[in-house]
Specification:
The chain is mostly beta strands.
Length: 191
């Protein structure tokens, strides 16, 4: 990817960034007076995603551009990032709310029965009897304690992402089959 760090302008353009983009963080706000921003990470590996030299796609207000990380440090689990070419508080403030993304091709393969969150969102959830439960709208929690957030016919359901409950996960087919313990589905349903 070509870095935008030497560009004299901080305006977003609809530059042709190809391929699927995966969200890895959101800019919360400016930090300090030297152009740094605080990032709310949306990744299980923030130290890898927000390393010095990494080029991220910055998406905001329908426009995109690339930004190279010039410096990073972590405070309370959140990265504080300095992008090359962003060196004033005013420039950093313009990034508030921006989504930080990477091309899907930059993601490493995962171990068996481990999935990227973006692969699970949009999957239809059924039980082992074929009854429709709903559709995954989010994945909540850290890797070891992930829960599928499922929009069901009678409200939102939280399904633990454990092998004994999620018995068949097929992101390519956009289907997850669950074998829920008694009462799990009914617990979250509202009349």
């Amino acid at each position: 990817m070509k870095s935008d760090s030497h560009s004299p302008t901080h305006q977003f353009t609809n530059s042709p960034i190809e391929g699927d983009l995966i969200l890895v963080g959101r800019v919360a706000r400016a930090h300090g007076n030297k152009g740094q921003v605080i990032v709310n990470p949306e990744t299980d590996s923030p130290s890898e995603r927000f390393a010095v030299g990494t080029v991220l796609v910055i998406e905001q207000s329908g426009g995109t551009r690339e930004g190279r990380i010039a410096a990073v440090r972590f405070q309370q689990g959140r990265p504080i990032v300095a992008f090359a070419g962003i060196d004033t508080i005013a420039a950093a403030e313009t990034l508030a709310g921006a989504e930080l993304k990477v091309p899907a091709s930059a993601l490493a393969p995962l171990p068996e029965r481990t999935f990227y969150r973006h692969d699970l969102v949009g999957c239809d959830v059924t039980d082992t009897a074929g009854r429709a439960i709903g559709r995954v709208v989010d994945v909540d929690g850290p890797l070891a304690q992930s829960r599928l957030v499922v929009a069901g016919a009678k409200g939102e359901l939280l399904i633990p992402m454990v092998e004994s409950i999620c018995v068949n996960v097929d992101p390519a087919a956009k289907i997850i089959v669950i074998d829920p313990p008694e009462g799990l589905v009914e617990l979250n349903e509202s009349e």
